[in-house]
Amino acid sequence: MTADVNPVGEGATLRQAQTALTEQRIVAAATGLFLADGYVATTLEAVARRARVAARTVYVRFGTKAALFKRVVDVAIVGDTEPVDVLGRDWMIEAMTAPTLAGRITAGAAVARQIMERTGALFAVAQQAAAVEPLIAGYWQEGREGSRHAQRVFWTRLSDDGLLPPDTDLSWLIDTASVIAAAETYLLVTRMLGWDLDTYQAWIAATWTRLLTGPGGISALPDPELVDEGSPDRVPLVVAHPAGQEVEFVGGDGGNPDRQVGELPV
User: Fold this and answer.
1) pTM of the entire predicted model
2) In 3D, which of 70, 75, 73 has the Cα closest to residue 24?
3) Distance between CA 6 and CA 24 in Å, rounded?
4) pLDDT tens across 135-172, in order?
5) Sign, CA torsion 151/145/110/90
6) 8 Å CB contact between 258 and 196
7) What pLDDT is stored for residue 5 in this prediction?
8) For residues 85 and 223, what is the distance between their CA atoms, to the nearest angstrom?
9) Could you tell me the domains of the chain?
């Protein structure tokens, strides 16, 4: 009868669920404090108070503030505390298995957008913290390497599936796409240009597409109906905007992603 009431493993499963719930509370509390107060001003004691757990619990689980911050960023990148990395997520698998090149680029740009939507503000905190905390600087570099690895897998899969143009320089493509998708690049374009997430996503899709019309790719062939005859150097690239519109990136004017097809420059 005892076995019926308390089956083998039930206690362990309950403890695991309680541990996971506690971690979620700590991560949520830490996320709010890091965003509100910054890395330096946030303490593990303050995190414990906000999470309503003992300070010892935070120290035992994470050890250091740097380790806690890394966990906060890692959770934000993938969207939850489940032990599944970026490459194992459904949305990344979809981006790597779409049947066409355009479909994969579109899905890949959507992946970049959702990661930055969840993590962009934390990346800004991390960038500042890396200047004063060697452990964060090390984690920042690990993040760069992880992002580049994901880009290598994404573009290599496209090559293996025969979806890239003939004679594409895969190494060059991976290197350049990695820079475009880097956290530093997102922070730069949002700060310098004031782009929102829709514009960022459209730019990622358009720029990745243009990589395939540059060195090692195929020649760009403009649509005669879209080229301004008075400006032969203006080669438009039309991509799908996340809001359902078409966005025109025009060579020769800086590729302003705010311009819509048929709209005069201002």
Assistant:
1) 0.76
2) 75
3) 26
4) 999 999 999 999 999 999 999 999 999 999 999 999 99
5) positive
6) no
7) 44
8) 41
9) 16-72 (1.10.10.60)
